[in-house]
Amino acid sequence: xxxxxxxxxxxxxxxxxxxxxxxxxxxxxxxxxxxxxxxxxxxxxxxxxxxxxxxxxxxxxxxxxxxxxxxxxxxxxxxxxxxxxxxxxxxxxxxxxxxxxxxxxxxxxxxxxxxxxxxxxxxxxxxxxxxxxxxxxxxxxxxxxxxxxxxxxxxxxxxxxxxxxxxxxxxxxxxxxxxxxxxxxxxxxxxxxxxxxxxxxxxxxxxxxxxxxxxxxxxxxxxxxxxxxxxxxxxxxxxxxxxxxxxxxxxxxxxxxxxxxxxxxxxxxxxxxxxxxxxxxxxxxxxxxxxxxxxxxxxxxxxxxxxxxxxxxxxxxxxxxxxxxxxxxxxxxxxxxxxxxxxxxxxxxxxxxxxxxxxxxxxxxxxxxxxxxxxxxxxxxxxxxxxxxxxxxxxxxxxxxxxxxxxxxxxxxxxxxxxxxxxxxxxxxxxxxxxxxxxxxxxxxxxxxxxxxxxxxxxxxxxxxxxxxxxxxxxxxxxxxxxxxxxxxxxxxxxx
Length: 496
Ligand code: 4AD
Known about the structure:
CATH topology of the largest domain: BirA Bifunctional Protein, domain 2
CATH class of the largest domain: Alpha Beta
Structural class: alpha+beta
Shape: elongated
CATH superfamily of the largest domain: Bira Bifunctional Protein, Domain 2
Number of domains: 3
Number of strands: 20
Strand order of the largest sheet: 9-14-15-20-19-18-17-16
Bound molecules: 4-amino-1,4-dioxobutan-2-aminium adenosine-5'-monophosphate
Radius of gyration: 27 Å
Oligomer: single chain
């Protein structure tokens, strides 16, 4: 039962407790409670009205039954204003439901409309809308079953990620969003500028494509107070500094990638969970990722049954079985070389079936390859480790046992999504790191503080990044990552 309480509209001295739909239990004392939410449906019969109120705490909200003999005149008038989408406060005791759909309902004695909702203008009809249509209504879509259920599961996942790291002694560190470094070196950066709106006339005029003068485009002198700065692509480098002092840390925050991709797996703004562990090798990072994922998926299986059952019914029939399997079975571990071998053998059977049939050592695996490995070859979560140096970031540790061709890096692939986690052991040797930076044309002066970590008490360390929206997509059985975040950012979409 919620601790918040409100006075009844008419008897101000009596405090009537508010109850959320998810907590509603049959009353033992017959006292009234308040239900506050948005009307999903209203049905009227000769002597009764049924109002389904959803407050976001569960899938179906709670049914409020109003008997015309038991309600006051004001409530009768208010009932005439009730439409789908309006907000209401309903008062009455919680009783055993007569209907089969729910166990408890409100025997309502009072109802007040808080905010009207003109039915003809309300864009959410009772029927099921397509997820594409709902994306155009990002401000209203949390009122639908699907998006509200995703939001509840997402919230539980975030809470359990923190719970996992807190209980295993990791320190939560917030790394900056504005930074000068491109951690992944992939050049997918959003640049930060200081645009002085009040003095826009002082900015240089630039011609737009259709020949008009504008100050909207700024030159580099307007960078972050005179220095180039970007939105972070990863909190890893900052995380390494704290791991190099505190042992085990994690970050969990927004990251940004200016990739012009319209896929079902990519966003321009997404959240990453990034643990970093000192005195740890690649195996430790894989072990930690496996433990963490099992912990959070089990948490959702234990705490979000109603929402998972809904996803299983409407979106992905095998969802719950797959999540249970993820928790129960050890993850598969294969080297990148073996992954290439398996793919080559399979592609050779019928290359025409593949969008990307060319696969050899050095190929950056595509989602098609990753999903085949996780879904068809192993039907399991799969770690692929020891990737070619040529396709990975400068900070990854050279693999001493592989003639310098590979680095101690891993990706975790899961059915339905492909890559969920990317991680590595970091290069902790100063000289080797400097060589690697030279090879990738990076200026050591830009990373002086990062190099200091290798000068002053360097230590083998490892970490990984989990794409949080990919995890939400996976756990909710969604097809598209755009359902996994409240306001998805992708090319052309930053309106809300
Ligand atoms: O493999 P990535 O690029 O790794 C890093 O950024 C490392 N610095 C992390 C670390 O070691 N601390 O990204 C990690 C994960 C990917 O596996 C994927 O799940 C997710 O981040 N990701 C994206 N998710 C949504 N949209 C995008 N554009 C993403 N790019 C990466």
